[in-house]
Amino acid sequence: MLYIPGRPPSARPLPQTGLAACATAIPSLRAPAWLPGRRLGNPLMAPAILTVLAFLLDKLIGDPQSWPHPVRWIGKLIDLLELLLRRLLAAVKAEGPGPALLAGGALYLLTVGVSAGAVEAALLLSYRHVQVSGVRILWLLVTLYLVFTSICLNDLLRHTARVEAHLSAGDLEGARKALSWIVGRDTAGLDAAAVRRAEIETLAENFSDGLAAPLFYLSLGGPLLAWIYKATNTLDSMVGYRNEKYLYLGRASARMDDALNFLPSRLAAFLLVTAAWLGGGDARGACRRWRREGRFHTSPNSGQTEAAMAGALGVFLGGPSVYGGRLVAKPTLGEGGRVAEASDVRKAERLVSLATLLSLLLCLGIQAVLWLTLNSHAGWGVLR
Asked: How buried is residue 40: exposed, middle or buried, by Cβ count under 10 Å (0-12/13-18/19+)?
């Protein structure tokens, strides 16, 4: 229970926001009589239903640019905090790696702290209001929104389809511009083969960062833990660069992102291998490349899914790329493989879609196992 100053211990306790909250949010969603722990009144279906609904929403509408999105808010928060911290360093005339590292740690803690606090506050406040026939409508809508915005598949697939449409029409310049929306590298000098290689790489990497990892943390700790991960991942995408500007200021964010992605990235690679086995891809090649080349990437995590994808398709990925006008010598994954073609992009999209379905089933399974084994102590939310 959260302590509130001036509130006597005998007062009504602060409402829970995890699985226990679902029991009172939707009274009808009780566990079946044959399940252990039913007498405790814990729900099994509410988190599963919300997760499935979030996937359906993503499939139907993706990420409309006109809609408010927490990632965009976190991005604005990061920009503001970075500006304030740099001004503070300049005001106190703090120079060198030490102060920059401390400022980077503060940037990470403040961003994640504010993000987590906002999520938990939204869940707690919405829990107290708007009940219809005993159903806490506002809490359900807020939770659904937080789950829905923590995943992204359809929008990524739409972007890759847009790039392919330009390439099919012979519009290489249009394909380069469309690609620049979903990759961090410079796209101006890429030929058609390099554009498709970049598409496949971003599909593999974003399957891990945008789907497998958020679902992994969602299944363990609900929207709160999922958005702690998303805030960390957003920080890494904005300040986690090894250049003069962010080498020290972004180090804490980059290291935390590496740590939080360590298990999910390997799980995502395994799911891609499984998807290749189920979907007619080269599962043996995917497994072999993953085991041999997953660690070759400059990132300890990105290479896991990219190597598996290269093996599943029989193409080579990676190689030197230009970032911010600077050539970066990235290792080649799938050495000896074919040059990526349009059909390979379509196969990669199908593999990611199938692996996403497997991720969803795994997430639902983890939720069920946690509930069955831990009962009221497992769930969506940390405050008890």
From this structure: exposed
> Tokens 């949010």 correspond to what residue?
25
| Spatial distance between the Cα atoms of 25 and 33, rounded to a whole number of angstroms | 19
The pLDDT assigned to 40 comes to 31
pLDDT in tens, 332-345: 999 899 999 999 99
Single out the residue of 276, 359, 266, 280 nearest to residue 311, CA to CA.
Answer: 276
Q: What is the DSSP letter of 298?
A: S
Q: Which value, in Å, is the radius of gyration of the alpha carbons in the chain?
A: 22
Tokens 């390979």 label which residue?
344
Q: What is the mean pLDDT of residues 126-143?
A: 78
Token match 């722990």: residue? 37
User: In whole angstroms, what is the distance from residue 7 CA to residue 58 CA?
Assistant: 41
- List Cβ<8 Å contacts ≥24 apart for 29-38: 31/371, 35/372, 36/372, 36/375, 37/371, 37/372, 37/375
Residue 318 host element (H or E): strand 317-318
Would you list the DSSP string of 7-76? --TTSPPPPP-SHHHHHHHSTT-PPPTTSTTGGGT--SHHHHHHHHHHHHHHHHH---TTS--HHHHHHH
Please give the DSSP secondary-structure letter assigned to residue 248: T
User: Residue 3 to residues 33, 160, 225, 235, 379: CA-CA distances in angstroms?
Assistant: 35, 49, 21, 31, 20
- pTM comes to 0.84
According to DSSP, residue 377 is labeled G
Please, are residues 222 and 139 in contact by the beta-carbon 8 Å criterion? no
Do residues 128 and 15 lie in contact, with contact meaning Cβ atoms separated by under 8 Å?
A: yes
Polymer length of the chain: 384
**Per-residue tokens: 64:** 């409309």
Nearest to 46 by CA among 128, 153, 127: 127
Q: Are 95 and 243 in contact (CB under 8 A)?
A: no
- Whether the CB-CB separation of 337 and 296 falls below 8 Å is answered with no
